[in-house]
Amino acid sequence: MSNDKLDMFCYQCSQTARGTGCTIQGVCGKQPTVARLQDNLIYAMKGISAYNKNANNLGSKNAEVDEFLTKGLFTTLTNVNFDAEDLVKLALEAGETNVKVMKMLKEANIEHYGEPTPTEVEVGSKKGPGILVTGHDFKALEELLKQTEGTGINVYTHSEMLPAHGYPELKKYKHLVGQLGGPWFDQKEIFAKYNVAILATTNCILLPKDEYKDRVFTMDVVKVPDAPQIQNHEYGPLIDKALELGDLEDETKTTVTTGFGVKVILSLADKIKELVSNGKIRRFFVVGGCDSPHPKATYYREFVENLPSDTVVLTLACGKFRFNDLDLGDIEGVPRLIDIGQCNDAIVAVDVALALCDLFDMELNELPLTIVLSWMEQKAVAILWSLLYLGKTDMLLGPILPAWANDDILKVLVENYNLTPLGDPKEDIARIMKDDGEQKDGKKVGIISKIEKKILNK
Ligand code: SF4
Ligand code: SF4
């Protein structure tokens, strides 16, 4: 290790150095890279578990996912696996498992709530009492919407609950009125600002401030000290609290659009094919993921703002709030900014990418498609390994590289996948698009001519 990070930290067994922790190498012989790969595997499994739990809540189960989680955890036990190469293979297997679990969750969401369709959502408060729902659990939202119908209470989404507005069986409730705030990390400001009852269904909850801690309710695995926990979707106390708090005032609203599912995007396939082959769309980007208040995360807005007008951006998860207020317009009816949903909807991006491969008869890495990931917590780790499992190369990762990946691990990721840290947004765009070509003197060059030849030769 050439930097000043701890080489490793493990204190899981009684042999731990000085009774406090193995920090240079394990008393058992475990090397730092193995320790870090074990941590990496655990983080990916945490992400898979979150999606698995949400799918389980909707009645969906997959024995292969459950078996992998058990096997993966067992692997990280003391004196079981000291093989770095095998732990990389297991990380890729975690990526494969995460594809399965994201697919299961997407199918369960569609089965229960219908295929999402693009929906404009108002951001701001309406006159009347309110409940704000944050997290990812649509089942929790649905049960709340049923129980609040006719009470006069307005229900708002926050953070990752925004995509709920795109699902027919959720948006049919007229009192699901809009969104308050943006990503999870604005909650201390937003929860204090709006005098509503708050339901936290999953992450990302922060320890509540005094101003609003008496209005926070949690459920399922989410808990914060002193906040009442809702059991079995029995929302009586939450509803009483909302009514007791009284009315919010009407605010001037802005709007954002969410709810692009695979079917909606693929209904544009013929048009996309035409636009790509005649050079009117030069490149697709997936920009998003879990977001954090890290100063470097301003990169994502600058990146999207500076993209040329012949590019299309798919976005998802909290990362979208960095730029989903931008009006990027459309390219002959194809929107330039497409919100595909929550972090688990990375599976939608995968499905769209694979459909583009079929459409243009190209391999995944030949497509004019670049992924610019933001990561914060461990679901994003699972998603990163899913993309690596699918063989996606040339991705950008930020706002910082994972601290548990030491030089040895980063070397593998760079050499095999050309995983790149964020640089300067304009320079990164210029580098990514330098070979894409454009219409020059009536001739098509670069990726455009390649795609046209593929189509003509079919
Ligand atoms: S498992 Fe190995 S590295 Fe971890 S505490 Fe025990 S001896 Fe140390
Ligand atoms: S997308 Fe990630 S950061 Fe945002 S609420 Fe979900 S888990 Fe948290």
Structure, described:
There is one protein chain. With 458 residues, the chain is an alpha/beta fold. It has 15 helices and 18 strands. It has helices at 32-57, 63-75, 84-113, 138-148, 168-171, 187-193, 236-245, 262-266, 269-277, 299-305, 346-360, 378-389, 407-417, 425-433, 446-456, and strands spanning 119-123, 130-134, 154-158, 176-179, 197-200, 216-219, 229-230, 254-258, 283-289, 311-316, 330-331, 334-335, 337-341, 369-374, 396-398, 420-421, 439-440, 443-444. The chain is globular. The model has no long low-confidence stretch (mean pLDDT 95). Bound molecules: iron/sulfur cluster (2 copies). One iron/sulfur cluster (SF4) is lined by residues 159-160, 183-184, 203-204, 290-291, 317-318, 343, 376-377, 379.
Helical content class: 25-40%
Structural class computed from helices and strand pairing: alpha/beta
Strand proportion, as a percent range, falls in 15-25%
Mean pLDDT, rounded to whole units? Answer: 95
Total strand segments: 18
List the helices and strands and how they pair.
Blueprint: H1 32-57, H2 63-75, H3 84-113, E1 119-123, E2 130-134, H4 138-148, E3 154-158, H5 168-171, E4 176-179, H6 187-193, E5 197-200, E6 216-219, E7 229-230, H7 236-245, E8 254-258, H8 262-266, H9 269-277, E9 283-289, H10 299-305, E10 311-316, E11 330-331, E12 334-335, E13 337-341, H11 346-360, E14 369-374, H12 378-389, E15 396-398, H13 407-417, E16 420-421, H14 425-433, E17 439-440, E18 443-444, H15 446-456
Parallel strand pairs: 2-3, 2-5, 3-4, 5-6, 6-7, 9-10, 9-14, 10-13, 14-15, 15-16
Antiparallel strand pairs: 1-8, 11-12, 17-18
One iron/sulfur cluster is lined by residues 159-160, 183-184, 203-204, 290-291, 317-318, 343, 376-377, 379.
